[in-house]
Amino acid sequence: YFSLLQSIALGKRRLGEIVKATGISQPVANKYSGVLSDLDIIEREIPVTEEKPLKSKKGLYRFKDEFIQFWFKFVFPRRGQLEMGQTDKALEEIKAELPVYLSFIYEKIAAQIIRQRADLFFEFEKLGRWWDKNQEIDLVGLNRKQNSLLLGEVKWSRNPVGVGIFNELKRKAQLVSWGDSKTRVYYVLFSRSGFTPEMIKLARYEKISLYKGDRICLEGR
DNA sequence: TCTAAATGCTATGCACGCAA
DNA sequence: TTGCGTGCATAGCATTTAGA
Questions:
Q1: Residue A42, exposed/middle/buried by CB under 10 A (0-12, 13-18, 19+)?
Q2: Which of 3.60.10.10, 3.30.450.20, 2.60.120.280, 1.10.10.10 would CATH assign to domain A2-85?
Q3: Rounded mean pLDDT of A83-110?
Q4: d(CA A122, CA A34)
Q5: What is the pTM of this model?
Q6: d(Cα A211, Cα A75) in Å, to the nearest integer?
Q7: Residue A32: its H or E element
Q8: What are phi and psi of A152, to 5 degrees?
Q9: What value, to the nearest 5°, has the Cα angle with vertex A112 and ends A108 and A114?
Q10: Does domain A107-218 have CATH number 3.40.1350?
Q11: Dihedrals φ, ψ of A100, to 5°?
C-alpha cells in the first residue's frame, strides 16, 4: 500500500504506470487502489465527458486526502534526511517543489468555487476535468438538459494570464466532443497573478469570467 | 497451533482505440 | 467492419502473516 501511495505521489497516476513503478501485479494494484478508494484516501478521476465512467480506460488515480498526499510527496521520501536533523535542506527542497503541488491544489479550489457559484453559470450535472492523450482542460462542467458547457483554465503562475491562454483553451475546446452547434459554452479563467489588460478587454467583449486567486474580478454575463 | 485476514498469483472477460 | 492490442476489472485459489 505504501509503495502504491508513493508512486501516485510521484505522479504515476495510471494503473499501468503504478504497476510498472511499484512492481506489484496489475490485479493487486487494482485491488489496493479499490481499498484505498473505499478509505477515501485516493480517488479515480475520469474525464467528465466519459459516457461510461466505470468502464473508462482514461481513469487517473489521485489523492483525495491532501494531508496524506503532502506526507507521501514531501515527507516520506525525506525520512532519512529529517531523522538526521537536516530539516533546513529538506525545507528548501520542499519549497522548490511546492509551486507544482500548489497548482494542483489551486485546480481543486477553483472547482469548488465554480460549484459554489453555479448560479453564475448553470446547474452542473458533472464538474471535473477533461483530457485525452496529449491535451487537458482543468475545468469542465456540463448539463445535458440545458445543453450547456463550461470550460476553464486554472493557472498558478507568477505572470498574469494573457490572451494566448484563452486562445489555447478555445483550441482545446474543439477537441471536446460534447454538445452540438446550439450548445451554450461558458469560459472561465483562474489566475494567481491576475490578467493582462488585453485579456481583460477580450473577456469583457467575449463574456468570459475571470477569477484572480479565489475572487471573481469579471462576471462573464 | 489454529484461524482469520492480508497479500499475491493466474486466468479470464470486457470495452475501447486503431489499423487494415 | 473486423481483428488485434491494450488497459482494466474480477473470480478463484494459494501463500503468508498476525493474533489469540
A1: buried
A2: 1.10.10.10
A3: 89
A4: 33
A5: 0.79
A6: 32
A7: helix A26-38
A8: -140, 150
A9: 115
A10: yes
A11: -65, -45
In A 180-219, which Cβ lie closer than 7 Å to strand B? none
**CA–CA gap between residue A143 and residue A127 (Å, rounded):** 9
More confident residue, A219 or A211: A211
pLDDT of residue A201: 93
Q: Can you tell me the distance from the alpha carbon of A142 to that of A176, in angstroms, rounded to the nearest whole number?
A: 12
> Per residue in A85-105, is it b (16+ CB within 10 Å) or e — as a string?
eeeeebeeeeeeeeeebeebe
Determine the distance between A81 (CA) and B8 (C1') in angstroms: 33
State the nucleotide closest to A58 in CA–C1' terms. C7
Q: Which nucleotides of C are covered by protein (CB under 7 A)?
A: 6-12
